[in-house]
Amino acid sequence: MANAFKDKPLEGKVAFIAGASSGINLGIAQHFARNGARVAIVSRSEEKIAAAAKTITDEGYEAIGMAADVRDFAAVDEALKTAHDTFGKIDIVVSGAAGNFVAPALGMSANGFRTVVDIDLIGTFHVLRACFQYLNRPGASLISITAPQAVNPSLYQAHVCAAKAGINMLTKCLAMEWGPGGVRVNAISPGPVADTEGMARLAPTPEMEAGVKARLALRDYGTKTDIADLALFLSTDNANYITGTIMDCDGGTGLGNAEGDALGDFK
Ligand code: NAP
Ligand code: COA
DSSP string covering 113-151, please? Predict the structure, then answer.
């Protein structure tokens, strides 16, 4: 029964989530809190992160929100230190801050490309590198948030593809280096998730959204809860033997274009 699913599997645990003022990462923070964790969340905007933390404390759970730009190592370290000083050793870290815009390589400046690599890839290195000294070891679980663009070359996404591919490899390298210290490092690759800034940018019209869904094996967007459930599982003792993996939670995005009617009358 050691691995039975518990009612509040994160009871007594401390979680730090970067990029959690909105969207998927805020969904993860809220889910972690409802499952027993005390959570520290960061993003660039003081106002947005305070409002996000309030959604959690309003439900009666413990949370602090701090402004920190993941491109600034010292700011990330300071936020982690505050989380540690407030709640104690950190058990779970999610690195999910990201930026995206749709543009061809010839339509972006060097600074445009660099900005996304800085937030997504360098920012993830900052969060994971800085958190190590504050971790509750052995047993800590680190999760980076990647994307299908890491493995699927995508038009107008050269910056994101490059940054997220780097995150996948960084995740695996850190899993190798830190596994002997009892620290697991995994990544989640969400597919298209409903009601997020990411999909508002990538498929801004109803026609584009319908097109994305038509090509997906599961024919629909995922929800923030779908992603948060996987993050929760990876952060529990049930996932004790999982490290260095890139877990797709993507409705079949990684399978490729599933448009067609292969089921025929068997639907
Ligand atoms: P979102 O709501 O825009 O979340 C991005 C978060 O990152 C925000 O909280 C933003 O807050 C923060 N952020 C941006 N730049 C930052 C920086 N330099 N330093 C610190 N925080 C920063 O987007 P989302 O669509 O939910 O995406 C969340 C994650 O899921 C991203 O890693 C994204 O690549 C990944 N993902 C999303 C989808 C999808 O369908 N949406 C699919 C695959 C992967 P501030 O503005 O307050 O800084
Ligand atoms: N096309 C081409 N280049 C673009 C662009 C676009 N649509 N949007 C921004 N850029 C370029 C800017 O022109 C600038 O380059 P320049 O200095 O050579 O002109 C560079 O990117 C940085 O832009 P800036 O607005 O100064 O960056 P920022 O750090 O304030 O914001 C972004 C970062 C650009 C990623 C912004 O979109 C953001 O804050 N995103 C967070 C939310 C998000 O993307 N959510 C979805 C996550 S999947």
Answer: HHHHHIIIIIHHHHHHHHHGGGB-SSS-EEEEE--GGGT
| Cα(166)–Cα(121) distance, integer angstroms | 6
Q: Bridge partners of 191? A: none
Give the pLDDT confidence of 90-143 residue by residue, as tens digits.
999 999 999 999 999 999 999 999 999 999 999 999 999 999 999 999 999 999
Placement of tokens 């994101």 in the chain: 160
Residue ranges per domain, the chain?
A: 14-250
Torsions phi, psi for 107 (to 5 deg): -105, 10
Q: Spell out the residues 6+ positions from residue 100 whose beta carbon is closer than 8 angstroms to its own.
A: 116, 157, 160, 198, 201, 202
Residue 129, ligand 1, Cβ within 6 A: no
Q: Provide the whole-model pTM.
A: 0.98
* Ligand 2 atom having least distance to the Cα of 196: 46
The number of beta carbons lying within 10 Å of the beta carbon of residue 208 is 12
Name the residue with the closest Cα to ligand 2, atom 3. Answer: 108
CATH of domain 14-250: 3.40.50.720
